[in-house]
Amino acid sequence: MPHRTGAPATEQPTSADDSAGAVDRAAPALLRFAQNTVGRDFAVGDIHGCFTELQRGLDAIGFDARTDRLFSVGDLVDRGPESHHALRWLDKPWFHAICGNHDFMAWRHAIGQPYEEVDHLQHGGAWLLMLSDAERPEFGARLAALPLAMEVDTGQGVVGLVHADCPYDDWLEMGRVPWHNTEAVSAVADCCLWSIDSYARRYAGHVKNVRAVVHGHTTTRTMEILGNVQFIDTGGWRPGGHFTFLDPQALVATQGPVNAAPVPSRRNR
Ligand SMILES: [Mn+2]
User: Fold this and answer.
1) How far, in Å, from the CA of 47 to the mean position of ligand 1?
2) Ligand 1 centroid vs 233 CA: distance in angstroms?
3) Does a structural domain hold residue 155?
4) Are 214 and 248 in contact (CB under 8 A)?
5) How far is the CA of 38 from the centre of ligand 1 (A)?
6) What is the pLDDT of residues 158-211, one digit of tens each?
7) Does 8 map to a domain?
């Protein structure tokens, strides 16, 4: 059980039946990547259907698809105009993503088992209705297969990626989670997907046995570091924000260009 995050935050589910681990996943929930010895690695925050903006950022940092890798900390879909491009991006051999709460809501919606605690349609999910009946299950299956966490070997220890919050003070615990035992996993999955607790408390403890843990989910004006935990969702998906590209090997972040899309009128946000 997670011991860091305490009581569930308001967005978190209360029923085990509706919790994030209650539906079988097609992939191991913790994926490990070997060190990239031929190019650079970058982690990027929430994308939310803004893949053209993301590409603009990649161009700005000179991303080389032949040798570099891009790791998304989740929330590929909802809110932006190009959520339906998510599978195209997941097909790219250099693009790897974990599951965010929006990806979770989208896949539950797409397979006809909507997550009852949050109305996905009210949180950017209307794009799913635009897909054909043939496309929707494919999105459901692909998003359901996203792992809840990743670790990237940097040659100086691993850097961990989790969408919202790390359930443990010791990264090795992530490797001990019985990911296929859905009842045991649900509280862990809920923390990984939804929790804003550590950030809200400005918790600055050091997660052991990992160089750094990288999160999205909590949108900040500039990247923030608490202990060895790095929050990199700097709102590249919304007007005035920018993508932050964090090199896990050097632990150096580069800012992408400012998102110059017009600010939507208030009722359309
Ligand atoms: Mn999120």
Assistant:
1) 10
2) 9
3) yes
4) yes
5) 31
6) 999 999 999 999 999 999 998 888 777 889 999 999 999 999 999 999 999 999
7) no
